From TrEMBL:
Domain Histidine kinase as annotated: residue spans: 304-544
Organism: Halomonas litopenaei
Biased composition (Basic and acidic residues): 15-24
The protein's name: histidine kinase
SUPFAM superfamilies according to UniProt: ATPase domain of HSP90 chaperone/DNA topoisomerase II/histidine kinase, Homodimeric domain of signal transducing histidine kinase, PYP-like sensor domain (PAS domain)
InterPro entries the UniProt entry points to: HATPase_C_sf, HATPase_dom, His_kinase_dom, HisK_dim/P_dom, HisK_dim/P_sf, PAC, PAS, PAS-assoc_C
Keyword Transferase: yes
Catalytic activity: ATP + protein L-histidine = ADP + protein N-phospho-L-histidine
Ranges where the PAC domain occurs: 112-165
Location of the PAS domain: 39-109, 162-202
CDD domains named among the record's database cross-references: HisKA, PAS
Family annotation (Pfam families): HATPase_c, PAS_3, PAS_4
C-alpha cells in the first residue's frame, strides 16, 4: 500500500513539472517575441528616419518596400512605389550598363554598388548610389528578394565632373602648371611642363627651386614663400630654367591647406616671351615713329633755322674782315689790338656751336630716359627752335613761368618734342585767322599744380578746335589740316603718358573734367587778361 501511494505522488508531480517547463518556455518565447517586436520597431524607425532610401525588390526589380525617404529624394509616396519596377525609372543608358554587368558596377563580398541616374516624380534625373545584396532560399538557391540602400550623390557626381573637367583643362593648357608638397617637391606637372622640363607626371622628385634660374630661385626663397605663407597667394614675374634656355613667365602661386594640416602649392606659369618680344618691337616702332616726327619737325623749321644760323656767320665774317683790314693797315701792330674782333668771332662760334648741338640732340634716336628735369630750361629750348619760324610769320611766341617751379620727372628730348609739336600746331591755327585784331600770339604757361604735379599750357590765338574734331583729336592719322598726317598729337600723348603724365585739350566752354580742373588754392598760375583765347592744350607732369 505504501508503494502505491509513492507511485501516485510521483505520477502527479511529473505533469506539474512538465507543465511548469512548458509555461516557462512560453514565457521565454513571449519575452523573445516582445524583444523582437521592439527591435523590429527600432529598425523600422531607423529605416523610416534615415535620409537614405531603403528598399526591397523582387527578382524583377519590383518594389516590395520603400522607406519614407522616397518622399524627399524622389517625390513619391512609399506606397506609390509598391508594385513599380525600379528598372522603369532607370536612365536608359545606366539600365543597359546594369543589365550587361558593366565594369562600372562594383562587386565585393556579395555586395553590389552602382552609381546611376534615377527618375524622380517630376521627371528629372538625380544621381543615385545604391548598395544592394541579394537573398536566396537556402534549400533551392532561388532569389527571394534584393535589399537596397540608396542615397542622392548628385552633388558629389557634379563636383567630380567639375574636377575632371578642370583636370582636363589643366592638362591641356599651354601654361606650365606645377603642384608641389610642403617640402617644395614637384608632385604633379601638366603636359606643357613635362615637355618643357622633360619630366614625368610626378616631377621625378624635382624641387621648384631647381626649375628656376638662380636669380628667380633666390626670389622664390626670399619673397615668394614668405608672401604665400602670410597671405596664401603671390603673383609676379619669374624665369624658368628649361633645357632650351631661360623662359620669362608670369607666375601665380597659391597655397592649399588640406585635411590633416598638410599644405600644397600650385604654381601657374604663363610664358611671357612672345609678349615681351612684342612689347620690345612696339617700343622700337614707337621710337622710330617718334624719331621720324622729330626729323619732320626739324625739316619744317630748317629754313628759318638756316636763316638764324646765317646771322652769326655774317657777324663772324664782318669781324674777320675788320681784323684783316687792321692788319693790312698796320702789319706790325701788337696782337692784343685784335683781341676784340677775335673775341666777338669766338662768341659767335660758341653761339652757333650750341645751336648745332641742340639740333643734334633733338634729332638723335634713342629711348626715353626719365630723370629730374628743369622745366623752364626745356621750355626755353623748345621756344628757341620754333621762334624763328614764328617771327617770320608774324606770330609772337612767349613763355610765362610761375615762380618756384619744381623739377619734373621727364625725358628732356621727348618733352621738348611734345612742346615743338604743340607750338607748330598752334602756329598753324594762327594762320587761319583772317583779320586778327592784334598780332597773333602763342604762349606757354608753366605753373605748379599742388605739390606733386606741374602743368604747361600751350595757348594760341587761333579759332580753336571744332566740336566734331575733339573726340578723335589724339587718334593716329586724324588731322584737322588737309595736308596733315595726324601723328603729332598721337605721338605727343604717347610720350607724355610714358613719362607718367597726361595731355588734354582744355575747353573753357565745357564743364572741366577731373583731370582738367583749374589749379586749387595752393597752386600758383600766371593770370593775364590779354592771354590768347584759342585752343588750350595742357601737359601735366609729376614733380621730381
Amino acid at each position: 500500500m505504501r508503494h502505491d501511494s509513492n507511485d501516485a505522488k510521483a505520477s502527479s508531480a511529473e505533469p506539474r513539472t512538465e507543465e511548469e517547463r512548458l509555461r516557462q518556455q512560453v514565457e521565454a518565447l513571449s519575452e523573445r517575441v516582445q524583444q523582437l517586436e521592439q527591435e523590429k520597431r527600432h529598425y523600422q524607425w531607423l529605416a523610416e528616419s534615415t535620409t537614405d532610401l531603403i528598399s526591397r525588390h523582387d527578382h524583377n526589380g519590383v518594389f516590395l518596400y520603400a522607406s519614407q525617404a522616397a518622399r524627399t529624394l524622389l517625390g513619391y509616396d512609399p506606397d506609390d512605389l509598391i508594385g513599380v519596377s525600379a528598372y522603369d525609372l532607370f536612365h536608359p543608358d545606366d539600365l543597359a550598363a546594369l543589365l550587361s554587368k558593366s565594369p562600372r558596377i562594383y562587386y565585393h563580398e556579395g555586395f553590389y554598388e552602382q552609381t546611376y541616374r534615377f527618375r524622380t516624380r517630376s521627371g528629372h534625373y538625380i544621381w543615385f548610389e545604391t548598395t544592394s545584396r541579394t537573398r536566396r532560399d537556402p534549400a533551392t538557391g532561388e532569389l527571394t528578394d534584393v535589399l537596397c540602400v540608396s542615397r542622392d550623390v548628385s552633388r558629389r557626381v557634379e563636383s567630380e565632373a567639375r574636377r575632371e573637367r578642370l583636370a582636363r583643362v589643366v592638362e591641356s593648357t599651354t601654361d606650365f602648371v606645377l603642384f608641389c608638397d610642403q617640402d617644395e617637391r614637384v608632385v604633379y606637372c601638366n603636359q606643357a611642363a613635362r615637355s618643357l622640363f622633360r619630366l614625368d607626371e610626378e616631377g621625378a622628385s624635382t624641387t621648384i627651386a631647381e626649375l628656376l634660374v638662380p636669380t628667380s630661385a633666390q626670389r622664390w626663397r626670399e619673397q615668394v614663400l614668405p608672401a604665400v605663407t602670410l597671405e596664401g597667394r603671390w603673383s609676379g614675374e619669374l624665369a624658368l630654367a628649361s633645357p632650351s634656355g631661360e623662359i620669362p613667365v608670369l607666375s601665380v602661386v597659391q597655397l592649399h591647406r588640406e585635411q590633416g594640416g598638410q599644405t600644397r602649392l600650385s604654381i601657374l606659369n604663363r610664358d611671357l616671351s612672345l609678349r615681351l618680344e612684342a612689347e620690345a618691337q612696339a617700343r622700337r616702332h614707337q621710337e622710330q615713329i617718334t624719331h621720324a616726327n622729330r626729323l619732320a619737325s626739324l625739316g619744317e623749321l630748317a629754313t628759318n633755322i638756316a636763316h638764324e644760323c646765317n646771322q652769326p656767320l655774317a657777324a663772324m665774317g664782318n669781324y674777320a674782315s675788320g681784323a684783316l683790314m687792321q692788319l693790312e693797315r698796320d702789319p706790325d701792330q701788337p696782337a692784343h689790338q685784335l683781341a676784340l674782333p677775335l673775341n666777338r668771332i669766338n662768341d659767335q662760334i660758341q653761339r652757333l656751336s650750341e645751336r648745332f648741338k641742340h639740333i643734334r640732340r633733338f634729332v638723335r634716336r634713342g629711348s626715353l630716359h626719365l630723370a629730374p628735369q628743369d622745366l623752364a630750361e626745356i621750355i626755353g629750348q623748345a621756344c628757341d627752335l620754333c621762334e624763328p619760324q614764328c617771327r617770320h610769320e608774324g606770330v609772337h611766341l612767349a613763355s610765362r613761368l610761375a615762380p618756384g617751379l619744381d623739377l619734373v620727372m621727364a625725358d628732356a628730348i621727348g618733352l621738348e618734342q611734345v612742346l615743338v609739336n604743340l607750338i607748330r600746331n598752334a602756329l598753324d591755327a594762327c594762320r587761319d585767322i583772317a583779320t586778327p585784331p592784334r598780332p597773333p600770339c602763342i604762349r606757354l604757361e608753366a605753373y605748379p599744380l599742388g605739390s606733386r604735379e606741374c602743368c604747361v599750357d600751350i595757348v594760341d590765338d587761333g579759332p580753336g578746335v571744332a566740336p566734331e574734331q575733339r573726340q578723335g583729336l589724339f587718334t593716329p592719322f586724324v588731322s584737322g589740316r588737309k595736308d596733315g598726317l595726324g601723328m603729332g598729337l598721337s605721338i605727343s600723348l604717347s610720350l607724355i603718358e610714358a613719362m607718367g603724365g597726361n595731355l588734354v585739350l582744355i575747353d573753357d566752354g565745357d564743364p572741366p573734367s577731373a583731370d582738367a580742373l583749374p589749379p586749387g588754392p595752393g597752386a600758383r598760375r600766371p593770370e593775364d587778361p590779354d592771354a590768347p583765347q584759342g585752343a588750350r592744350f595742357r601737359i601735366t607732369l609729376p614733380s621730381a
